[in-house]
Predict the structure of G protein-coupled receptor.
Amino acid sequence: MFDTAIVPDEFNHIFSLTTTLVSICANSFLIFVVSRTQVNHIGPYRWLLLGFSAVDIGISTVHTVLVPSCHMTEFGYIFWGNRFLNESNEIGLAACLFWNFLFYQTFILLAFQYVYRYVILCNPPWLSWIQLNPWRNWIVIAVLADTFFVGAVVADTSLGFKPSDVSRTAFAPVLKEVYRIDLFSDNQPGYLAAIYWSQKKTSAAGVMQRLSRTTHFTMLSVTTCYQIIDTNGEKVWLARATTATCILNVLFFGTALVIGFCLMRIVQELRPKEFISARQKRNSCAEFRFTISTQSRQVQRQLFRALLWQTFIPTVTSYVPLAVVFLQPLMIPISLGGLGTIAAMSCQLFPMIDPMLVFLFVKGYRATLLQFVQNGLSTTQAKSTVMKIMLGLWVLSQLAIYVAVCWLSFHYIFIEKEYFSEDFDAASERKRILMWYASCFYVCTCFELGIGLERGVSIRRPTQYYNSKPAYLAILTFTLLSIFLSYLIAYLALSGAGDFSTKVGSVLSNSLDVVAFAVNFLVVYFAKRKDARSEKLLNERYQIREAYSIALAMVPAYFMSMALKFGIFVANWLYVTHAVPYSVAEVIYLSCSELNCGLTACMFLLYHVRLRDKLASFWSRFSRAHVAVENNIEENTESYFRMMTDAWK
């Protein structure tokens, strides 16, 4: 029915990288806030928040490392990691099992949070022993429950869905045709697959045998499967995958029942007093509820609302889509094809959203976040901390380019035998090094743009700008966005000559260079006009002139950069249009980009007076000549007053 890839491989990689980057940043910041902020009436629950954030970071990282895909057929499904297709069967299977382990780990932690809230709020008599030694008892319960449930899931998955000759034969044609993946390659890549049933036809011998490949043409795609013959012409259920799925359902629904029970009791506990019936008041849980203070009850309601959303969102984005993948072949025998990949991609959303829910619903953490953002969005002190950091990052990105060049050179010398390549698609290792090289180069361009933007912001309100706190959060955000954008452009540009993604990457890289070039000239123009026309205090005039001097010193650097980047433009489009062999475009690109790094920094240093004087002063410490000076007090005094007079003029 939908037996196509649906999601392009490039989009899957970009989506995984984007969600992972956001998830790592958001969860790391939540860990920082929770560990540094003491919110009243939360207590040890903060350790559960920290554990949840750590698992979110882990599952997001595994998503990017694995880049999972799933293909659904009418008789089952197959799950594999795109980055492990070249590895052995054991490594590919272990990677898929590790993803499965972390995915179910989030479900167990969610259930554990409900159990913890239930015990703390309701204090049921049959669980009162936990509070006698809470740290020891909670740790023991967590370890035992996690070992049992997660261990059972991983063991069941590894035994029921591991690669076999039957699954490899059944899924090999469709993966070869739709995804160009060869399951019978020399390494025999690992995966997880389930075949629930096989359609049977009448056979005189009454034995089961495999039919030849059967192809069904539809308007959308081609569906390919293998069938097995039986005397009755009915479905024959394969016990291994069916039994493994039943065990998984028991584990999932058993955990869901625990969550549902705790949810109902917590809702009863947090209801207002006027809605409590006489029967509920006689309950021990209802009696205990009146001992909770009003402030503590408010915090518990905030945490509970966050927990409800932490349950609803993964249910919609993770648990329901994967339930469709598991159960659809059992209920509706139609081929959904690449929709399974969409289900796997949707699982990447919750680790990114989860920390935002905590900040949204817990007032204490939200206040800390707003205060941090307010301080972080402030600019800098009069010493131009932001400017120094941006220039430092610009220089570091240039050094990273030279490191990538050394890496590429060593690769040519010690690994590759054939230096000149006619093919536009480089070898995998060479292509990977070039991708990192191009990423560093685009990061350098992003910092050139950042320098211009920072100078533009500094001349808008100079006094307020230079008297506020350093913008560390803004710098960190800009740096992360620059790295992500640079990697995205490099990935698109080197995805393959002639492809649409390559053209998009080339257009984005050219646009980035032009925007960085234009922004600096706009800053020079507006800084000069504001210095000449507006009335300012002496301090403001000094700050505007400082911004103007740096922007003006960048003009020769940008001119030199654009002259060399013109060669890079030519190399990009020669590569895209197949005009020259691959290695010719590579030589032009590497030569121009390396010259760009060294010459632009030299031009900036040459035309910025203060930096040039500091450099001259630095070198003069090592080359200063020792000259005997006569001790003439009158001459020295006269020179001093003459210098002061000239300074005041």
User: Anything to note?
Assistant: The longest helix spans residues 538-576. The CA atoms of residues 494 and 522 lie 32 Å apart.
